Amino acid sequence: MNIRVTDIPAQTVGRIDVAHVSISLGEGADAFEAVRDLNFAVAAGELICVLGPSGCGKSTLLGALAGHLEVTQGQLTVDDQPLLGPSPDRGIVFQQHTLFPWKRVRDNVAFGPKMRGLGKAERRMAADQIPKLVGLEGFEKFYPSQLSGGMQQRVEIARVLINQPRVLLMDEPFGALDAQTRSLMQEVLLDIWTKIPTTTVFVTHDIEEALFLADRIIVMSARPGRVIDDIRLPFARPRHTELVTESEFVRLKRHILDRLRRPDGFSLLPRLSPLGVPAE
Amino acid sequence: MAVGRMVERVPGVRWLVRAGSILACIGLWQLASSLHVNLGIVTFRNVPPPTEVVQSAIVLLKSPKLLAHVSSSLWRVFAGYGAAVVIGISLGFAIGRSRTASDLLLPPLELLRPIPAVAWIPLSILIFPSSELSMIYITFIGALFPIILNTVHGVANIDRRLVASARSLGGTPAAILREIVLPGAAPSIVIGLAIGMGTSWFCLVTAEMISGQFGIGYYTWEAYTLQNYADIIVGMLVIGLLGMGSSWLLTTLGHHLMPWRHPTVAR
């Protein structure tokens, strides 16, 4: 019961094509265009960060990739398949954890296999393998409320990866963590991604986080979100925290800051969610 | 201040204070009824003292009447409340999950809801063939509304992010209902069950006083008409004990069904 993606040659599944995608949210008079004419592709196995100011629609794009939101114009495909609603093929991790409070860590992780109809013994076996990968050993019988924020996000990642998704979608997953835990979790994520090279779309508004994690950064403008820059990062892997003090890192950070400071990059809009307009 | 702090520190002392408070109340009662205290608006002239009540309780405990009364009351609550649980939770789920069901079912229920269950007693005697069935119906109607409303509340307020997550993990609508909506609504449902249990007993005792043949409410009312005043209080105490027991059962059930609400053991 290992991870499927590692068994087959890497970088063959998980290619994402975003073709002239626009997404409108809200109804009637409150309707607005969240993103406009996004056009880019993500190679299989690539880790990209989508960077942009709050409310620029980067989470909206992620919600559409997950299948929770519909595209108004254009087309989204993964491995040339159009997206029809949510699927375990495209796992999503939210900023605030969505673990089921009534399930222990092990049963939260085993939720996907259970939905696939696996027997209890098989599920348990699968669910006991993954925690080692994300550093959850010893916590299998805890309830989510007993875990720290970082641990909760590890469970989230484990719960998504057990389904062997083609694509891993992350919506500011470490945004609610304290600085030290966030930095630790970035390294944990890179470690997992090295072992299971899943195509990853990581949404953040933290420039350093994007520079540290990504193969490539897509910079978006304020609403309606458009792609204003597409930067391939030259940093070698494995990466360590010292990277953030290197001159090229600092130069790119300044470049992106400049990009975002221009009138079309700056905004003070409320945060959007991958599930559409926030309920309140 | 210093005494208060000491009391907080020693748990045994707090229990002593609590027990003392109960004993003091019983002592006051004994005093008031043996002296036939008349306070103008209330009089203890006909109130039996605790000592007499204890004697009557012992007599009732030894007679076969107790079992007959208690078991017929328990049966009525079991039947009426049980039906309310099944129907209330099902209706609550339908109304909370489906707009059509809500539009179809909610308006008539909202019209009936403000009518207190005991106001149903005369009509229910007319529409049911036996007084037994009409009493069960009163018990049912008393518990039904709190159960429906709290179920609707719990079901409708499920975190939509959890549902979205479950869909992304491959959950079918049926699985989401079972794995997410049911446990997510459980705390609210249990609150409805507890409120319903209280109103159930309240309605049953009233119904039994009016149309009962047996039952603990009937026993209490009969004691009044036969002027066995000590038995009135015995009846009241038995009703209190039954209510307490059933609410304890519900709380225990809640703890068992929702262990995640009180995770005391780490692993």
Automatic annotation (TrEMBL), chain A:
One Pfam family this sequence matches: ABC_tran
InterPro entries: AAA+_ATPase (IPR003593), ABC_transporter-like_ATP-bd (IPR003439), ABC_transporter-like_CS (IPR017871), ABC_transporter_ATP-bind (IPR050166), P-loop_NTPase (IPR027417)
Keyword line: ATP-binding, Nucleotide-binding, Transport
Location of the ABC transporter domain: 16-247
SUPFAM superfamilies found in the cross-reference section: P-loop containing nucleoside triphosphate hydrolases
CDD domains named among the record's database cross-references: ABC_NrtD_SsuB_transporters (cd03293)
Gene Ontology MF annotations: ATP binding; ATP hydrolysis activity
Keyword Nucleotide-binding recorded: yes
PANTHER family listed in its UniProt record: ALIPHATIC SULFONATES IMPORT ATP-BINDING PROTEIN SSUB (PTHR42788:SF13), TAURINE IMPORT ATP-BINDING PROTEIN-RELATED (PTHR42788)
Entry similarity comment: Belongs to the ABC transporter superfamily.
Physiological role: Involved in beta-(1-->2)glucan export. Transmembrane domains (TMD) form a pore in the inner membrane and the ATP-binding domain (NBD) is responsible for energy generation.
Protein name from the UniProt record: Sulfonate ABC transporter ATP-binding protein
TrEMBL record, chain B:
Keywords (A to Z) from UniProt: Cell membrane, Membrane, Transmembrane, Transmembrane helix, Transport
Sequence ranges assigned to domain ABC transmembrane type-1 in this UniProt record: 70-250
Record localization: Cell membrane
InterPro entries per the UniProt record, alphabetical: MetI-like (IPR000515), MetI-like_sf (IPR035906)
Keyword flag Transcription regulation: no
Pfam families attached to this UniProt entry: BPD_transp_1 (PF00528)
Acyltransferase as UniProt keyword: no
Residues spanning the membrane: 12-32, 74-95, 111-129, 135-159, 180-202, 232-251
One cellular component term from this protein's GO annotations in UniProt: plasma membrane
GO biological process: alkanesulfonate transmembrane transport
Topology class, membrane: Multi-pass membrane protein
Listed SUPFAM superfamilies: MetI-like
Function (record text): Probably part of an ABC transporter complex. Probably responsible for the translocation of the substrate across the membrane.
Family named by the database record: Belongs to the binding-protein-dependent transport system permease family.
Name the UniProt record assigns to this protein: ABC transporter permease
Organism name: Bradyrhizobium jicamae
